[in-house]
Write a structure and sequence with these properties.
Elements lengths: L1 E7 L8 H15 L2 E7 L23 H11 L3 E7 L7 H9 L8 E7 L5 H13 L3 E2 L4 E3 L1 H9 L6 H4 L3 H26 L1
Parallel strand pairs: 1-2, 1-3, 3-4, 4-5, 4-6
The structure holds flavin mononucleotide (FMN).
Length: about 200
């Protein structure tokens, strides 16, 4: 079975992303065709990147914290980024994590779940461009959580739960079906390459 890494890209106190992470991981696991892990960037506090570009020394990391993060990324066959939108971009902590690594993401698909005034669409579009630089395959089908859901979650204490997110399940299923296709196709192609 292929391994999917769900990346929680918000680390701030009181983050909305926790409810999204619980929902996405549970629903992806329920399919039974992926091994699903959660990568919470809170568990990987890294210094601001200030080294030589990792592309020049693939998988060689002096910092054990970066090496630990890189191993988790490397072990995955595909990714789902949970995308908070900050000032029309994605989070600085995600960009920093990306800049610390490189080849681990290569030739693997990435799908996006975003939230915010336009469902994180602006931040997701930026991430699609960045994903290409990492030679990832950014996927079309995304989940956009809009302010109606965020407002309702706030009124219930802050987190979106599976009942509030239920109308978005068909979108998540479409994302997951597409991710399954690309994960299989690219894993097959990668394994043929190393033989
Ligand atoms: C620094 C900052 C900037 C923000 N900028 C935007 C924005 O440009 N567009 C938007 O839709 N929401 C914006 N928001 C609101 C976020 O969508 C909202 O706070 C959301 O909960 C962030 O995700 P998180 O709680 O998981 O960090 C911003 C929030 C913060 C903290």
């Amino acid at each position: 079975m292929h391994r999917i890494l769900v990346v929680n890209s918000s680390t701030r106190q009181g983050r909305f992303s926790d409810g999204i992470a619980t929902w996405a991981v549970q629903r992806l696991k329920e399919r039974g065709d992926f091994i699903v892990d959660l990568l919470d960037l809170r568990d990987h506090p890294l210094p601001f990147f200030d080294d030589t570009p990792p592309v020049y020394h693939p998988r060689e990391y002096a910092d054990e914290g970066v090496a630990r993060l890189a191993r988790q990324i490397d072990a995955a066959d595909g990714y789902v980024f949970l995308v908070a939108e900050y000032n029309h971009g994605y989070t600085a902590v995600l960009k920093n994590a990306l800049d610390h690594t490189f080849v681990e993401w290569r030739r693997k698909p990435v799908a996006f779940i975003g939230w915010g005034n336009v469902g994180g669409a602006r931040a997701i579009e930026q991430l699609r461009e960045v994903a290409v630089e990492f030679e990832m395959a950014p996927l079309r089908h995304a989940v956009h959580v809009l302010p109606d859901v965020m407002r309702a979650a706030r009124e219930r204490g802050g987190q979106a739960d599976s009942a509030l997110l239920a109308p978005l399940e068909p979108r998540l299923d479409l994302l997951a079906d597409d991710l399954a296709w690309w994960t299989e196709a690219l894993a097959t192609a990668r394994s043929a390459e190393v033989r």
